[in-house]
Write a structure and sequence with these properties.
The complex is a heterodimer of chains A (190) and B (605). Chain A is α/β, with parallel strands linked by helices. Chain A has a single domain, classed as Pyruvate-ferredoxin Oxidoreductase, domain 3 (3-Layer(aba) Sandwich). Helices cover 38% and strands 23% of the residues of chain A. Chain A has a six-stranded mixed β-sheet with strand order 2-3-1-4-5-6, sandwiched between helices. In chain A, strand 4, helix 2 (77-83) and strand 5 form a beta-alpha-beta unit. The longest helix of chain A has 14 residues, at 16-29. Chain A starts with a strand and ends with a helix. With 605 residues, chain B is α/β, with parallel strands linked by helices. Chain B folds into four domains: 2-216, Thiamin diphosphate (ThDP)-binding fold, Pyr/PP domains (Rossmann fold); 221-317, Rossmann fold (3-Layer(aba) Sandwich), CATH 3.40.50.920; 346-516, 3-Layer(aba) Sandwich (Rossmann fold), CATH 3.40.50; 520-590, Alpha-Beta Plaits, CATH 3.30.70.20. Chain B is built from 21 helices and 23 strands. In chain B, the strands form six sheets. Chain B has a seven-stranded mixed β-sheet, with helices on both faces. Chain B has a five-stranded mixed β-sheet with strand order 9-11-10-13-14, with helices on both faces. In chain B, helix 7 (133-150) links the parallel strand 6 and strand 7. The chains are: A alpha/beta (190), B alpha/beta (605). The interface between A and B is large, with 56 and 56 residues. Strand 2 (33-38) of chain A pairs antiparallel with strand 8 of chain B, so a sheet runs across the interface. The structure holds iron/sulfur cluster (2 copies). One iron/sulfur cluster (SF4) is lined by residues 341-342, 526, 542, 544, 546-547, 556, 561-567 of chain B. Residues 339-340, 343, 345, 365, 441, 445, 514-516 of chain B line the site of one iron/sulfur cluster (SF4).
């Protein structure tokens, strides 16, 4: 199997690194070689965050360049657009319908694009918009948004559901296991 | 057992397995996690040193005593430590000595893109270049033995991508090594010119022997493939090239200084042409071309010198793929990092912006005060430069050109300890009159909250002597010193305004803990009352990420607001910004009290 690339992106503080840790664990348990890359430091003060997870029989590079990623999971809408250049033509994009204004927008200097889905469709028709906040609120715990989004991602991947559930059980706080599994199920079955 | 480790975790693990006894560092992205992880091993003694030079000297001292020691720093940190680095090369080691440099191609978190492989050549030291976490661990472990065997400090060159990528690592056991103890060796360790001359002879011989090691080192390996193209690559660039053109012949360089010229010769003979794939400078390329002028060798004529590489860039350079898809995605607003909601630095920058002074800056979270809307920092050069730059600029403008004083230097607590103190003494000694603001948030924040001499805690979180910044400032000869609470905007404005108009050096210490030190707390946020908000946008000028401007009114994002109340203080309308009583929680401003803190300090004294 060729090496596959998944990019998880969003805003510092959204739990991106935790999500990509779970994803890496799942892929390891599924028997793949895995490399994962992220950048620390300056970018974590409310800047954009991207984590690259690559898996396959043998993975060389931990990162990819333009037109090389198979899937993008965006925790924030604008960040989907920002990282789209990394996606293969007609690769898959899962966008959380959540808007977080970057500072230049918040201060009124620049506009937040209103036509994100339209722009995304220029590069791929394979995109899907979900609302993690809504799902998490319905489940009564705003913190499970990440795991719901991983469920959305898992649906598009070829890894057994049990492996996902095992890793989630290990990774989330004990008392929140059930609600996280529920969130995962909503994403996976949705 | 195999585990997914970052390169930095792997270095710490390799050092531990290699029997390291002591580790020292000053934090700096992308190197910080090396010492953080090393400090978790109980059988290793570690410290955050005040700066990289100190760290290297302390570790060298430990090797004098026969302990195995490691230091780790970012690329520019090695500049700070360069002086003892060059001496350490002549002195050699007693206990093994490993020096990690984590470079930052692409400048994700740095002021330049320097290639520290130059240091191995300049200081005549052995260098390893791991290309993934497994190699990072292995090479670190091997480096300790090599160091003792060849009497040399060993450099390990990481980059952002090898440091911060995770890959699988096979874990091993710790090799227990005894601390040899101290034996006086005047001719080796005292670099008086007469001794140093002899040591230089030794160093040149050592480098020849190390070249032999390099030729025989199993990780410097030839992977024969298609003989039309031979790729020579090191570090993560090897992984990129391998991905770009897996069928080619490869010479993977893992021990990159001295280069394995015998192996290189064999490789050159076996292929039609050579392409050297390396990030940033053409270091291997230059050396190999000089040694084999007849061979067809490419490098920077194909591979970019600026910015970090990735597989795509290498593929394009090698002609494996064409240009990327040209899809017009339109304007995408950038998302620059910003000071956190409730950051104690925000108010000071807000005031500096209003006062329209010239601000020389420094390295830390507070460098973000340079960005809009605060726009309150003119320069940022290197650690400690705020004070010395302010002094030099003041000399040029006030003393030489006869203008009025108007310069403020701004520096953080950790940076002040790192290299601000000598600059401050210079300023006072040479009759400078600039104002220096020390933003004391009690921690080294930017790199992820490491303890520093002002925190009262060491790397393990154990209590230790808390160094008193105000006392240092006074002892440096500054008479006009005051410590203020940066949330008290009125006082801060008055104090800064007074200071910049006085013809004497002054220091203002703005003291309050970093907002992220209260991470687990639930806040009671403020809210904007839409009917009262007149849309003047004054609060927006704070640059707080919790406030935005929509439909001609300010809005506060309740999940982000920590209730520092600065926006309420700057708002000209009474009652437009108020606590949101529908929410339960604490207010960051109430959690710490400067008056009480100062009183407590006095009583303790
Ligand atoms: S981490 Fe601390 S010092 Fe840095 S921006 Fe946030 S609050 Fe300010
Ligand atoms: S009180 Fe105002 S300035 Fe402070 S964090 Fe909340 S919104 Fe930002």
């Amino acid at each position: 199997m060729d090496t596959k690339t998944i990019i998880i992106c969003g805003v510092g503080g959204q739990g991106i690194l935790l999500a990509s840790d779970v994803l890496s664990d799942v892929l390891l348990e599924a028997g793949y070689d895995v490399k994962k890359s992220e950048v620390h430091g300056m970018s974590q003060r409310g800047g954009d965050v991207i984590s690259t997870v690559r898996y396959g029989k043998k993975v060389y590079s931990p990162i990819v360049g333009e037109d090389e990623a198979d899937m993008i999971l965006a925790f924030e809408k604008l960040e989907a657009l920002r990282n789209l250049r990394l996606l293969k033509r007609d690769g898959k994009v899962m966008i959380n319908d959540f808007r977080w204004d970057p500072l230049p927008v918040a201060t009124g200097t620049l506009e937040y694009p209103e036509d994100i889905a339209e722009r995304v469709s220029k590069k791929t028709k394979n995109y899907k918009v979900v609302n993690a906040t809504k799902v998490a609120e319905e489940l009564g715990n705003i913190r499970v948004a990440n795991i719901y989004l991983l469920g959305v991602l898992a649906k598009e991947m070829d890894v057994k559901r049990e492996i996902w559930e095992d890793v989630i059980k290990r990774r989330v706080p004990q008392k929140a296991v059930d609600v996280n599994l529920k969130a995962f199920a909503v994403g996976f079955e949705g | 057992m195999k585990k997914l480790l970052s390169g930095n975790e792997a270095i710490a693990r390799g050092a531990w397995e290699g029997g390291v006894h002591f580790g020292a560092a000053y934090p700096g992205t992308p190197s910080t996690e090396i010492l953080e992880n090393l400090s978790k091993y109980d059988d290793v003694l570690t410290e955050w040193s005040t700066n990289e030079k100190v760290a290297l000297e302390v570790a060298l001292g430990a090797t004098f005593g026969g302990a195995r020691a490691l230091v780790a720093q970012k690329h520019v940190g090695l500049n700070v430590a360069a002086d003892p680095l060059f001496s350490a090369s002549y002195i050699g080691v007693t206990g093994g000595f490993v020096i990690v440099t984590a470079d930052d191609p692409g400048m994700h978190s740095s002021q330049n893109e320097q290639d520290n492989r130059h240091y191995a050549r300049a200081a005549k030291l052995a260098m390893f270049e791991p290309s993934d976490s497994q190699e990072a661990k292995e090479f670190t472990r091997i480096a300790f033995d090599l160091s003792e065997e060849y009497d040399t400090p060993v450099l390990i060159r990481m980059t952002t991508r090898t440091s911060h990528s995770k890959s699988l690592v096979e874990l091993g056991d710790r090799k227990e090594v005894e601390v040899k103890g101290y034996q006086r060796d005047f001719h080796k360790r005292n670099l008086l010119p007469a001794n140093a001359r002899k040591r230089h002879v030794f160093v040149e011989e050592r480098m020849k022997k190390l070249e032999e090691f390099s030729n025989n080192f199993e990780y410097n390996r030839i992977e024969w493939g298609n003989r039309d193209i031979g790729i020579i690559a090191s570090g993560v660039a090897y992984q990129y090239a391998k991905e770009a053109i897996p069928g080619a012949s490869f010479l993977k360089i893992s021990f990159s200084y001295p280069l394995p010229f015998k192996k290189i010769e064999e490789f050159i003979k076996g292929v039609k042409k050579i392409i050297v794939v390396e990030e940033n400078d053409p270091i291997m390329e230059t050396e190999i071309k000089a040694r084999f002028p007849e061979a067809e060798i490419h490098g920077k004529d194909m591979i970019p010198m600026i910015n970090e590489l990735n597989p795509r860039i290498v593929k394009e350079a090698l002609g494996v793929v064409g240009k990327p898809d040209d899809v017009d995605l339109g304007e995408i607003p950038p998302r620059p990092p910003a000071l956190c909601p409730g950051c104690p630095h925000t108010g000071i920058f807000y005031i500096l912006n209003q006062l329209k002074v010239t601000v020389t800056g420094d390295i830390g979270c507070y460098t973000l005060g340079a960005l809009p809307p605060l726009n309150a920092m003119d320069t940022c050069v290197d650690m400690g430069a705020s004070i010395s730059n302010a002094h030099g600029l003041d000399m040029a403008l006030r003393v030489i050109k006869g203008e009025k004083k108007r310069i403020v230097g701004i520096i953080g607590d950790s940076t002040f300890f790192h290299s601000g103190i000598t600059s401050l003494i210079d300023l006072v000694y040479n009759k400078g009159v600039s104002t220096v603001i020390i933003l004391d948030n009690r921690i080294t924040a930017m790199t992820g909250h490491q303890e520093n001499p002002g925190s009262g805690k060491n790397i393990k979180g154990e209590p230790t002597k808390e160094i008193d910044i105000e006392a240092i400032v006074r002892a440096s000869g500054v008479e006009d010193v005051i410590t203020i609470d940066p949330f008290d905007l009125k006082l801060a404005k008055r104090v800064i305004n007074d200071a910049i108009h006085k013809e004497e050096p002054s220091v203002i210490i703005a003291k309050r803990p970093c907002a992220l030190l209260y991470r687990k707390i639930k806040w009671k946020p403020l809210k904007v009352v839409p009917d009262k908000c007149v849309g003047c946008k004054i609060c927006i000028r704070l640059g707080c990420p919790a406030i935005s401007f929509r439909d001609k009114k300010a809005v506060i994002e309740p999940f982000l607001c920590t209730s520092c109340q600065l926006c309420k203080d700057v708002c000209p309308i009474d009652g437009a910004i108020v606590p949101d009583d529908s929410m339960e929680g604490l207010m960051i401003r109430d959690l710490w009290d400067l008056e009480k803190e100062m009183k407590k300090n006095k009583e303790e004294k």
